[in-house]
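## retry 2 of 3
previous attempt timed out at serialization; input unchanged, resubmitting
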Amino acid sequence: MKYARLTKEQFDELHAEFASFLATQAIDKAEWDSLKINKPEVAEQELDVFSDLIWEGVLSRAEFLEHFSKNHIFLFQCFETHVQSIVLKSLVPETDFLTKEGLQWLSDNMFTETIEMKVGKKVFTEDRNASIFELIQQGAFLSDGQLFKQINTILES
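## retry succeeded, writing output
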């Protein structure tokens, strides 16, 4: 397995897609039910293959990621060969970017000496999708990139 197995909730959401996937393997509902009982290891393999296919599709389309922690915000834009990053760090320890108040504080103090901002670029040393998946495993989530674009536009002007 290249990535991680989807959760039960994710499988539930992708029920129709999973049924189509099984159909491409010539597995109908009766056979699937039989596999789960009589050959659970084969059923597990099918779940893993499907999970990897879904992850591969999602990661291939991924462009922006965000990761929030108490005092840091990591913003990423993913390209074919590299990732651009903007890291915001609060120099005020009581700030908590995980709260609405913390985000409001950020908005009010974005370009003051209380926010440290670093811009970076990292070339993918391994497979692009695997690198993006690693960021997700560390707590990043896919985003529309609005925050990245706003800050990047200001930094470029």
